Amino acid sequence: MQSANMLLRRIVRSSVLPFATQHGMKKDLFPLSRTLSLSLCLTQDKSCEPSEKLDLDEWKKVMKSGFQEEVSEVVSEPKELSSLAAARETLEMWRLAGRAVPENISEEQLKTFMECPSKSAKKKYLKYLHLRELHKKNEKRKMDEKRERRLEAQDQASKTDETKKGSFMCLWSRTMDKAYNWRAAQSMIFGQPLVFDMSYEKEMSVREVSNTVRQIVMSESSNRRSVDPFHIHFCNFKDDSLYHREFIKNYREAWDKLLITVTDQCYTEIFPKDKLIYLTADSPNVMKTFDHDKIYIVGSMVDRSIKTGVSLARAKRLGLETAALPLEKYLLWSTGAKNLTLDQMMHILLTLKDTADWKKALEFVPKRKYCGFVNKPVKELKKTLDLINTLKLGKGREKVEKQFAKNYPKR
Questions:
Q1: Disordered: where is this region (predicted)?
Q2: DSSP letter string over 295-307?
Q3: Quick one: CA torsion of 222, 225, 231, 233, rounded to 10 degrees?
């Protein structure tokens, strides 16, 4: 008999109780268990005497205690779920009423919303989530638009490349390359030499050397496309140096086909010293005119990274003449150092060689460095410069006047 009661209790706990709690059958649970116990006893133990009685009240207490333990664990979750569902319905009602409510909200955010102490706090929290959701949508929209613009630009570039790859354009480019190469070949025989001093590798970092080589590549390209190109010399050039590796990285197979002179000798060993002029911004001598019989030397370095006067000191050690571009004579210099990039120097020298016009040549100086060209009387220039420097500096007017007197002496 006891074994039958234990078996019935296990069955009720494992199957009947969860089923009853899910379908709301709490009230009918105990009559059902009583019926099951009686029927099970009658079927399993027919030899029992009819006079033997079951203690149904005690059985009811045992079943009730087990039922409370099981139901307390099962019912706690539906209460929480029902409260979350009610909160979601509240949010939906507020959304339909036109309030600032986020479209998507997580369970953690919903629990935080439920824990808000007042209705105004709940509104503020929902407004915060709504604004954050709008911000994310705007960011995503901007990223999508940016991606679409980039794809459109790539499509247009591919279309233009396809048009350039046409038969006529290919023929035209090959013809122009032949013409440019022919001019460069003639310059190696009849052209005016232009020297790039490649002896500054140890005084620059790897990044600065890469930047310098990039500027020299642009200089060589503009020289090759000019009407009367220079004969470019790379002097003090060492094989397997950092300069060499960067040039191979930029030119690849075309490095061995360049129509320039590359040598490890110094320029003083190739050309006479009386014809050499070292162009440096630190020189006290101002270049007045372009001399077609001279050989100009340009230091292959990034001036910003090197101490002032390095190229000037090198030229003096070698006993060479130095010169600086007349920037202050033709330009109202504003701010910044008077050092120019190598490709800018190449454009200026090519323009001077072709036209001998300083104003036209100095147009290649970056416009952020000067206010304009000197084309007014000195008195008006003095007023303009005083006004500019007074607005910029405020104090130090005497220093400005001394600098102006030095730059623009009385004629």
A1: 137-160
A2: EEEEE-S-GGGS-
A3: 40
Q: Do strands 331-333 and 370-373 pair parallel, antiparallel, or not at all (unpaired)?
A: antiparallel
Beta partners for 231? 193
Contacts of 236 (CB under 8 A, 6+ apart): 197, 198, 199, 264, 265, 266, 267
Residue 396: predicted pLDDT = 58
Task: Tell me what pLDDT residue 42 has.
Answer: 43
What's at 130, amino acid-wise?
H
pLDDT at 376: 53
Q: Give me the count of residues in the chain.
A: 411
User: Which amino acid is residue 362, in one-letter code?
Assistant: L
Which structure tokens are listed for 243? 């300069």
Other CB atoms within 10 A of residue 118 CB: 8
CA–CA gap between residue 2 and residue 71 (Å, rounded): 25
One-letter amino acid for residue 100 of the chain? A
Query: What is 182-372's CATH number?
Result: 3.40.1280.30
What residues have CB less than 8 Å from 72, skipping those under 6 apart? none
Across the beta sheet with 193-197, the strand order is 261-262, 231-235, 193-197, 295-299, 276-279, 321-323
Q: Tokens representing 275?
A: 């014809």
Contact 56/26 with Cβ under 8 angstroms? no
Residue whose C-alpha is closest to residue 234's, from 201, 268, 281, 267: 267
The Cα–Cα gap between 258 and 264 comes to 17
The pLDDT of residue 161: 64
Instruction: Kindly give the parts of the chain with pLDDT less than 70.
Output: 1-81, 160-174, 303-307, 334-336, 375-411
Q: What's the burial of 100, exposed, middle or buried (CB within 10 Å: 0-12/13-18/19+)? A: middle
Closest to 316 in 3D by CA, of 263, 262, 268: 268
**H or E stretch at 372:** strand 370-373
Can you give the residue ranges of every domain in the chain?
Answer: 98-160, 182-372, 376-406
Please give the Cα distance from 320 to 382 (Å, whole number).
36
Q: Which residues contact 352 (CB under 8 A, 6 or more apart)?
A: 290, 358, 361
Q: Residue 41: its pLDDT value, please?
A: 46
CB-CB contact of 242 with 278 (8 Å): no
